[in-house]
Amino acid sequence: MNLSNLQPAEGSTHNQNKRLGRGEGSGKGGTAARGHKGAKSRSGYSKKIGFEGGQMPLQRRVPKFGFTNINRKEYQGINLDALQLLVDNGTVTDTVDFTVIVENRLATKNELVKILGRGELKAKLKVTAHKFTATAKAAIEAAGGEAVTL
């Protein structure tokens, strides 16, 4: 073995491509396979999201309207029929608080919970949540339960 017949170990090299921009004799000199002129031939080129070749992009052509309230609070709604289902399954007996709601995957631990009035509640429950609709509160109290606001 000498310097004239050294080779890298089998499988250690991966890049078999021709090196670009290394003189005319290499066959990939001059424009380095980027073609002539234009943005794509320049160094540092990266296409912006939504770029349409200089035409006014769709996102800027379409009119904007409406208003987003930055102080809006999003609530995860839970209906009374969902609470009744928990009672029917034997999951809950007397109290429904935030931990019970999270354990039964009706909401996640970071969400605010609002009890909504769809369905009917037959069981006497002490329900604890962030908000209640008027109909839900009335239905819980009519069943002999208690609605506690967090």
Architecture blueprint of SSEs:
Layout: H1 58-61, E1 75-79, H2 80-89, E2 95-96, H3 98-103, E3 112-116, E4 126-129, E5 131-132, H4 134-142, E6 146-149
Parallel strand pairs: 1-3, 2-4, 3-5, 4-6
Name its key features.
alpha/beta; 3-stranded parallel β-sheet; 4 helices; 6 strands
Please characterize this protein's 3D structure.
The mean pLDDT is 91. The protein is 19% helix and 15% strand. It is built from four helices and six strands; from the N terminus they run H-E-H-E-H-E-E-E-H-E. The protein is α/β, with parallel strands linked by helices and 150 residues long. The strands form two sheets. Strands 1-3-5 form a three-stranded parallel beta sheet. It has a three-stranded parallel beta sheet with strand order 2-4-6. The N and C termini lie far apart (81 Å).
**SSE ordering:** HEHEHEEEHE
Strand count, sense and barrel status of the largest sheet are: 3 strands, parallel
Low-confidence stretches: none
Strand percentage lies at 5-15%
- Overall geometry: elongated
**Number of helical elements:** 4
Number of strands: 6
Find the structural class using helix and strand composition. alpha/beta
Helicity level, as a percent range?
A: 10-25%
- Mean of the pLDDT scores? 91
Distance between the termini: 81 Å
In the sheet with the most strands, the strands line up as 1-3-5
Q: Tell me the Rg in angstroms.
A: 33 Å
